[in-house]
Amino acid sequence: MTSITFHGGVNDIGGNKFLVKDKDTTVFMDFGMSFSQEGEFFAQFLNARGSNFLTDMFELGMLPKIKGMYRRDYAKHVGFDGNEETEIDAILLTHAHVDHCAYIQYLREDIPIYCSEESKLIMQNFDETGTDQYLTHKEKFQFYKNKTGGVSRATGDKVAYPRNIQIFQSNKEFSIDSIRVEPLPVDHSIPGVHAFILHTSNGSIGNTADLRFHGRRKDDTEKFVERCAKSDLDILLCEGTRVNKTSSLTEYDVETKVADIVNNTKGLAICGYPIRDLDRLMSFFIAAKNSNRYLVIDMKQAYLLKLFTESESMKGKYPSPIDKNIKIYIQRGSWGLIDKDLKKFSDKQLYADYAMWQRPFLDYPNAIDYRDIQKKQNEYIFFCSDFRLQDLIDIKPDEGATYIRSLTEPFDLEMELKEEQIKNWFTHFGVIKKDQDWHQIHVSGHGDGEQIKKVIDGANSKKLIPIHTKHDEYHKKWHSNVQSVNQHDSVDL
Ligand SMILES: [Zn+2]
Q: How many CB atoms lie within 10 A of CB 442?
């Protein structure tokens, strides 16, 4: 028998967790976080409790209670000893957006994670520039014997376990016991996204992942649909984030529109875009070239570009962090020593102002700080993340500055409030006026209705299950055999 159980990612946008069982083989496609479920129960100061994390998540139905699946330091607090034989043979990861990958951090380290090189590098960036634990998990909640023979509590970083990461190649089939897996690249708003076709002993299952036709990799999505048509699919799990939308600009439109705006800007051009969307970074990079400016990126993006440049198989796909059209912005460190008299504080103190991963960038030939930007504002497109708006206090944009926002528009109250706050910052510095808006130039990572219809028509699957959407009525309009499922439902092949 072959079955799919939907532990998340249905009647919801994201939180994908699809459990496929075929004979003795069990795999998950994605293991992501649901923003809507998190929002239903949690808030900034109300979260799942430390060592009680799994109990809390099981209680609220946010994670499936499966033995042998979760990291031992957490599992032992829910009555699993953590050493049970695991029934999970693999996690197949479509891409490294948190709604698909976030809960990987709670898995036991010996469960193999199959992902693309790009997804691995993005997760590495999360780990090394923040506190995430995708590639390595650091043991928490342990007691150990101390030097005096007493018992101490480990704080969490003493023992680290690398996870079992298996990199797959695009279009190169591999097997997990009885399941043959085809990883097929598709176009979305982060590098390395792969849809899957699983060939099981009772038929084949397609999973679109998140996709579109209006980005830089439209051909990939087209080839995936062709491949589906040739595979005689029994079931297609088909995304529908934007099925109710009718049109889409393309990534190339973003590139031209941004260049136009920058060419008409007398002062500093400031921009915001999703930090891991390297195709969007490309749009700004090209726009910078076409307007004779430098693109100023932050250290997190520089780190990501460094990882991609150092990877044998990714080298040259995106600009190197020392590209002649790129400058790296050195923000004020925690003590703010960057503009202080170093004769008093020494270089060593200045470096200590930054995290280990940030320090090498201080010596890069293309490193700049607010003083460089202040002096020649019309030479730069300055990337300013929503979390680093304080950098504007140092830079103090002159008259004639502009702000291009290349991020998704708010779709709930919380996001509207946040956007109001961002507006306050740019109004404060006179970049926009109270009654005037910034330039909103963005295209989504998801195809509109017409594009999804094209996937449905082209894939020619016997059955369709809507995923990653709250609007299954469109799938039903476009396919005669649609089965809508609820969270935790199972479907047999
Ligand atoms: Zn998603």
A: 18
- DSSP bridge partners of 205: 198, 235
Q: What is the pLDDT of residues 430-465, one digit of tens each?
A: 999 877 789 999 999 999 999 999 999 999 999 999
pLDDT of residue 292: 97
What are 403-422's pLDDT values in tens digits? 999 998 777 777 777 889 99
The closest alpha carbon to 95, from 120, 130, 126, 65, belongs to 120
**Dist. CA 187 → ligand 1 center (Å):** 12
Domain boundaries defined on the chain:
2-245+446-492, 251-440
Q: Would you state the pLDDT for residue 349?
A: 87
Judged against a pLDDT cut of 70, whether residue 157 lies above it is answered with no
Q: Are 78 and 54 in contact (CB under 8 A)?
A: yes
What string of DSSP letters covers 383-401?
E--TT-TTHHHHH-PPTT-
> Beta-carbon neighbour count of residue 22 at 10 Å?
24
Cα gap 473→457, rounded to integer Å: 16
- pLDDT at position 253 over 80: yes
CA of 240 to the centre of ligand 1 (A): 10
> CA dist 315 to 243, 284, 285, 296, 350, Å?
35, 20, 17, 21, 32
Strands 113-115 and 165-167: parallel
Structure tokens at 461: 């699957």
Question: What is the tens place of the pLDDT at every residue in 473-483?
Answer: 999 999 999 99
Inform me whether the pLDDT recorded for 156 exceeds 80. no
Assigned CATH class of 2-245+446-492 = alpha beta
Q: In sequence order, which residues have a C-beta less than 8 Å from that of residue 292 and are 6 or more positions away?
A: none
Q: Which of 9, 97, 101, 7 is nearest to 57 (CA)?
A: 7
Helices and strands in the chain: count of H runs, count of E runs: 15, 24
Q: What is the pLDDT of residues 314-373, one digit of tens each?
A: 999 999 999 999 999 999 998 888 888 777 777 888 899 999 999 999 999 999 999 999
CATH 3.55.40.20 fits 251-440, yes or no: no
Taking the centre of ligand 1 as the mean of its atom positions, its distance from the CA of residue 481, in whole angstroms, is: 24
Alpha carbon of 35 to ligand 1 centroid (Å): 10
Ligand 1: distance of its center to the CA of 199 in Å? 23
CA distances from 408 to 335, 444, 445, 481, 488 (A): 34, 7, 10, 33, 30
Planar angle of CA 271, 292, 322, nearest 5 degrees: 75
Pair 459, 465: CB distance under 8 Å: no
The residue count for the chain: 493
Q: From the CA of 30, how far away is ligand 1's center (Å)?
A: 10
